[in-house]
Amino acid sequence: MSHIGMDIGSYAVKVVSAKVSGTNVNIESAHSSYNPVGQFLPKPGAYQTKLAEAIKKLLVDNKLSHLELNMALPDSEAFSTIISMPVLTDAELASAVQWEAEQYLPISLEEVNLEYAVLHRPTSKDNGDKMRVLLVAVKKEQSGHLLEFVQTIGNTISSLETASLSIARVYSGRSISTASSILVCHLGALSTDIVILQHGQLMVTHSFPIGGLALTRAVERGLSLEATQAEEYKRTYGVDPDQLEGRVKAVLLPVVTSILTEVRKSTQYYQSENTDQIKEIILSGGSAYLPGLVGFIANQLSTEVILGNPFDVIKAKSNQTLPQDVAAYTVALGLAMRQEA
Fold this sequence. Notes:
Layout: E1 2-8, E2 12-21, E3 24-34, H1 46-61, E4 69-73, E5 79-85, H2 90-104, E6 112-120, E7 131-139, H3 140-152, E8 157-162, H4 163-171, H5 174-177, E9 181-187, E10 192-198, E11 201-208, H6 212-222, H7 227-237, H8 247-273, E12 280-284, H9 293-301, E13 304-307, H10 310-313, E14 317-318, H11 330-336
Parallel strand pairs: 1-4, 3-14, 4-8, 9-12, 12-13
Antiparallel strand pairs: 1-2, 2-3, 5-7, 6-7, 9-10, 10-11
């Protein structure tokens, strides 16, 4: 059975179709379409209709219409946290998780749909270790809005999760086989998501509202360019100091520095709780292709930095030519890899 992952990004909508059997992933197709409204999910009205039409065309043109979709909410649209708890059975956890969630959620439980997943459960209560549980809460109004939107394009939602979970699903194997602890920095249009994995287990998630659009606006303001020209300059010259006498790098640097600050914070938090060091940083998302960015971050953080290829990481098979900007498809691929519980 095919699984369809759809990632509605603020810059583009990405879809990946795959057949998954155990650890075998066979990619059937990967496509994208420009998001004409620049939002994840606009309120009902002309903008929502315009986005629905663009998505419907993307699905119909690629023979993916009327299939159930695995979808992701931007982390900014949900509340998620990883908590430590005494070792409990599934039945005990089901009773305790509501009380635990009340301690962490900034809004009433009555206003949200709450889901949880055990990330780690020690084999014995006597060894002193605690279990780690991921809590995810989404406002009922938001999830209802998304369900209604998908119905307008003639599809239904099979599953819904946060983008960070999709990213973690793709790269969990790499933190087992290549490096014990890795950090994935997924650079989207409006936000950046940080995921830290240790031996395949999700340890830290962090999202902040700085992304590709902030980089474009920095070029637009700093060099007095129109938005389309600023986007072109950003993508062509990036933070390469040898291009245009480093003028584009100079105006991008404050935004890149802000992103690096959040990466450092996440790393420091992780290492305050764990003895493992981050061995590798993987750049993901559309803005990961900024010229010179990999080398600049590696130099600033003194850590190995690579440009991620999610299809290569999972050794996916494909009968079709994959898109060139593969790093932008990380979330959509993670969604397509999701199997029925």
